[in-house]
Amino acid sequence: MKSLHRTSTAQESFDSSAVNRRTLLGAALGVGGTALLAACGSQGQGASSSSSAASASESAAASAASSSASSAASASSAAPSPVASATSASASASASASVSSSPLALAQPSVESQPDSLRCLVNKMRPFEQQDWEPSDLVEFYGHQLRAEAAKAADTMIDAAATDGVTLLVSSAYRSYAVQQQTYQYWVSVNGQQVADQLSARPGYSEHQTGLAIDFASPEGCRLEECYRDTLAGQWLAKNAPRYGYILRFPDGRQSVTGYRFEPWHYRYVGVQIAQEYVSSGAKTFEEFIGTGAAPDYASAS
Ligand SMILES: [Zn+2]
């Protein structure tokens, strides 16, 4: 994944276009676009569905976790190394499908004000308010970085999978704004923007920037491809990840809500409590669970 991130040297900036998107949508809605769109950067009051009781305990858990950041950092030594060889360009070979033509979904007020919250929702309608926001508690994680609490939980999960004879490899984890800019530009250069927008988030819009998302891989291959679902790792994660606080973020058949095709390799840490609430709720997407609108696409095409 490192090679992927660093393949592109294009330096085209997306800063101004992102600002313009928010400004334009905000104008269209007659309100401050930034305040409306920044799920993790502004305080909202629209929590309608999911429980609000989780917030307090979750904050406590996050605080507790950050105090043990250093121990989590050293816990991943016996890890399998990231898969580095397989090209993921083939993931887009079948990417000729048309872009979702869903009408523009109106952004909803955020239910979470802090980008470091485990409830933070980032998607195509909800970029980081501070575009280049960085977590303060990143730790080393299988050659990548992840927030301390998420890394500790993932270590436990990876060990549990190993006990079951399943190897979970880590393909990618935290990606900074700058790295995401390279990643996105790589996909644009390979596939064009229309397809790239279905495969990779624009910088400032990626869940990987939260430090809470992991792209897993498998010794069987199928890296960043739908067939990952059928690998031992993919099957194990689908069944067990919520027990360790991780949820499948981009499920099959939910592109109209999440904005992304099925990504059986991408898991998001929300903590055990929220993950259990998520499973119990029957929600099919984190958007649905948090109670925001769908985010099928960016507010503006460019
Ligand atoms: Zn991912």
Nutshell version of this structure?
The chain has helices at about 1-5, 15-30, 35, 55-65, 70-75, 150-165, 175-190, 195-200, 230-240, 255-260, 270-280, 285-290; strands at about 140, 145, 170, 215, 245-250, 265-270. By secondary structure, the chain is α+β, with helices and mostly antiparallel strands.
Fold and architecture overview:
It is a single chain. The chain is an alpha+beta fold and 302 residues long. It has one domain: Muramoyl-pentapeptide Carboxypeptidase, domain 2 (2-Layer Sandwich), CATH 3.30.1380.10. The chain has twelve helices and six strands. The protein has helices at residues 2-7, 15-29, 33-37, 53-66, 69-73, 148-163, 177-191, 193-199, 232-240, 255-258, 272-281, 286-290, and strands at residues 138-141, 144-147, 169-172, 213-217, 246-248, 266-269. Strands 3-4-6-5 form a four-stranded antiparallel beta sheet. Strand 1 (138-141) and strand 2 form a beta hairpin. Helix 7 packs across helix 8. The chain is globular. It starts with a helix and ends in a 12-residue tail after the last helix. The model is unreliable at 1-38 and 41-110 (pLDDT under 50). The site of zinc ion has 4 residues, from strand 4.
Could you estimate the helical fraction of the residues in percent?
25-40%
Bound heterogens, unique: zinc ion
Major sheet: size, sense and barrel closure?
A: 4 strands, antiparallel
Strand order in the largest sheet: 3-4-6-5
* CATH architecture classification name: 2-Layer Sandwich
Q: What top-tier CATH class fits best?
A: Alpha Beta
Order of helices and strands: HHHHHEEHEHHEHEHEHH
The CATH topology is given as Muramoyl-pentapeptide Carboxypeptidase, domain 2
Overall strand count: 6
- What is the mean predicted local confidence, pLDDT? 74
Strand portion: 5-15%
Distance between the termini: 26 Å
* Domains (count): 1
> Counting H and I runs of at least 4 residues, what is the number of helices?
12
